[in-house]
């Protein structure tokens, strides 16, 4: 009986595994403000990760955040300016960038705070990472709120 139960369980499980698809996530950052004469750049400069929970929910969209970079290079006063299609992208992104550290572009210049506004585009593709990137590049041309 146990063998039959295991065999049935295995047969029920196999179709779910074989139907699993890869999902390729891409996050693109665009500077909204300032466009020129930046004082700071982000340490590490790696692209943010696509949140697994949002990818599993197939949630795509964009969010715009405004924040300050302190004289010490910390991210402060983070505000969600817009978040499409819902607030989840904005909430996740706000939490993500609060931990970012910044370095001065010109270490010889005296440290000063800076106001920044960034746009984050979250895109998913089922075919390839390249398809997801191409979709995201098109999405950056659309209005985000």
UniProtKB/TrEMBL annotation:
Coiled coil: none annotated. GO terms for biological process: transmembrane transport. Residues 35-131 form the TonB C-terminal domain. The keyword ATP-binding does not apply. It holds the Pfam family TonB_C. Keywords: Signal. Transmembrane segments: none annotated. Residues 1-20 form the signal peptide. This is TonB family protein.
């Amino acid at each position: 009986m146990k063998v039959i139960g295991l065999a049935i369980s295995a047969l029920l499980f196999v179709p779910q595994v074989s139907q699993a698809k890869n999902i390729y996530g891409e996050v693109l950052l665009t500077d909204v403000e300032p466009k020129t004469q930046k004082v700071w750049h982000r340490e590490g400069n790696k692209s943010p990760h696509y949140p697994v929970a949002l990818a599993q929910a197939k949630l795509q969209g964009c969010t715009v955040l405004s924040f300050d970079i302190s004289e010490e290079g910390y991210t402060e006063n983070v505000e969600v300016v817009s978040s499409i299609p819902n607030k989840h992208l904005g909430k996740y992104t706000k939490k993500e960038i609060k931990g970012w550290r910044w370095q001065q572009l010109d270490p010889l210049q005296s440290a000063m705070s800076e106001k920044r506004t960034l746009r984050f585009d979250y895109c998913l593709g089922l075919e390839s990472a390249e398809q997801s990137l191409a979709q995201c590049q098109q999405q950056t041309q659309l209005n985000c709120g």
